[in-house]
Amino acid sequence: MLPDPTGPTAPTAPTRAPEGAPTEGRRERRMRHRTDWMALLSGLLFISMGVAYITGSATDAYQMVPVLVAGLGFAGLVAIIARVVRGPDR
User: Fold this and answer.
1) CA atoms within 13 A on the CB side of 77
2) DSSP assignments along 25-49, one per residue
3) Measured distance CA(44)–CA(69) in Å, rounded
4) How many Å apart are CA 67 and CA 61, to the nearest integer?
5) Domain spans, the chain
6) Which of these, 75, 82, 65, lies nearest to 42 by C-alpha position?
7) Spatial separation of the C-alpha atoms in residues 84 and 72, rounded to whole Å
8) Are residues 17 and 23 in contact, defined by beta-carbon separation less than 8 angstroms?
9) How far, in whole angstroms, is CA 89 from its chain's centroid?
10) What averages of pLDDT result for each successive group of 10 residues across the chain (90 residues)?
11) Measuring CA to CA, how many Å separate 19 from each of 14, 29, 78?
12) pTM recorded for the entire structure
């Protein structure tokens, strides 16, 4: 025989919020991540170099190596300046 769906049900245990989850009584400050400028600019550099290679506008390695070195140097410089402006990590 199947149990009666309209009959009494077993009491359920109260559920707890996962550890670290905000509760109703208090709100925790949300952590925001900072932009990693070195990774962002390096990714954009490699994507643009890949697009230039696929479209055929840049097929010479002697032309692409200085662009790569200059682009990575620029990305490093921007990352250093951003870290100085932001200050120490909290």
Assistant:
1) 6
2) S--PPPP-PPP-HHHHHHHHHHHHH
3) 14
4) 10
5) 37-86
6) 75
7) 18
8) yes
9) 17
10) 64 62 60 86 94 88 91 94 83
11) 15, 15, 38
12) 0.59
